[in-house]
Amino acid sequence: MSWSYDLTIPSELAGQTVRTCLQTWLVPKRIQGQLRQGRRIRINQFPASVASPLQAGDHLQLTFIANDFRTPVSNYLPDSAATVSVLYRNANLLVVNKPAGTKSHPNQPGERGSILNHLAAYLAPSQQAPYMVHRLDQMTSGAMVVALNPVVVPILDRLISTKVIRRTYYAWVRGHFAQTFGQFDAPIGHDPADKRKRWVNTFDAQPALTTYQVVTTTPRQTLVKLSLTTGRTHQLRVHLAASGHPILGDPLYDDHADQAPRLMLHAQALALQLPFSTTSVFVPAPLPPLFHQLGLIEHY
Q: What is the pTM of this model?
């Protein structure tokens, strides 16, 4: 099993070595070493090393093999593809619009029903398979990146962890904010009273930063746009609840969660830098119809 790339060198990388290009593209150092040791680097069809210089228009050929990766094979059992809504797709990745209530991935061997199971069925006709990059909480809907091969998984991981890939969320929350714009910066850790939960300023709290912007209001509720600078577990849910504005329908942090039919949190957009490229794409995920029904939301 192998994955081959034929990459045309852009003008901004002219004069750089293969090593520098691989570093720029966030290929892990371990995999760089395995490409070198396996002599799986070619320039314009001729064998090359990581020290070889490149010119604009050169073709850099890289061949990756299964031993390069911790999880070279995708083993998600296929499920129905009927509910799959793909927002963006290229040869390396796709962005799927995950429904609320659907798991991002299975938790047990043989389990089905997650978005990755559905994508396994969706991709089977093209002989591709899904690889997990990040997850959304089961109750959260919206844009989720999925890799289509193991090569780009560590690259996408780095792009997310360094916030080059940016995620925007919308949430309906209780109450009104004193300011239209603001930030929450309380550190987040495990809730000592409930192992399912996280909370602010706990014994093991780590730095966390969330930015919010008020989008619209009803007499009792507020729709906010949210962005993450850090990525702590339940970060948006905890920061909003700790500020006195829990997300409607949140079973862990909203005392009146049973009044709403779902967690009113949606991953509304992804700003992606594509692997092996300087190209960026913006992928929106339309708000679910329920988010526009202000008369209903006012009574949740």
A: 0.92
Q: pLDDT-based confidence at 82, cuts 50/70/90?
A: confident
What is the DSSP secondary structure assignment for residue 152, as one 8-state letter? S
Do the beta carbons of residue 171 and residue 264 sit within 8 Å?
A: yes
* Whole-number Å distance between alpha carbons of 275 and 16: 18
Does domain 2-68 match CATH 3.20.20.70?
A: no
Where in the sequence numbering do the catalytic residues fall? 137
| Tokens 């990459």 -> residue | 7
pLDDT, one tens digit per residue, over 246-296 is 999 999 999 999 999 999 999 999 999 999 998 999 999 999 999 999 999
φ, ψ of residue 139 in degrees (nearest 5): -85, -10
Under CATH, which architecture does the 167-267+293-297 domain have?
2-Layer Sandwich (3.30)
71-159: CATH topology: Pseudouridine synthase (3.30.2350)
CATH 3.30.2350.10 domain position(s) in the chain: 71-159, 167-267+293-297
* 88 φ, ψ (degrees, to nearest 5): -160, 145
Position 5 pLDDT exceeds 90? yes
Q: Which residues are registered as beta bridge partners of 88?
A: 95
Cα distance between residue 136 and residue 131, in whole Å: 14
Output the six-digit token pair for 167.
């995620």
| C-alpha dihedral, 235 to 147 to 40 to 15, nearest 10° | -70
CA pair distance 147, 13, nearest whole angstrom: 25
pLDDT given at position 231 = 87
pLDDT digits (tens, 9 = 90+) for 124-171: 999 999 999 999 999 999 999 999 999 999 999 999 988 899 999 999
Closest listed residue to residue 242, CA positions, set 294, 196, 299, 197: 197
CB 16 within 8 A of CB 49: no
Name the segment(s) of the chain with CATH classification 3.10.290.10.
2-68
Residue 79: pLDDT over 90? yes
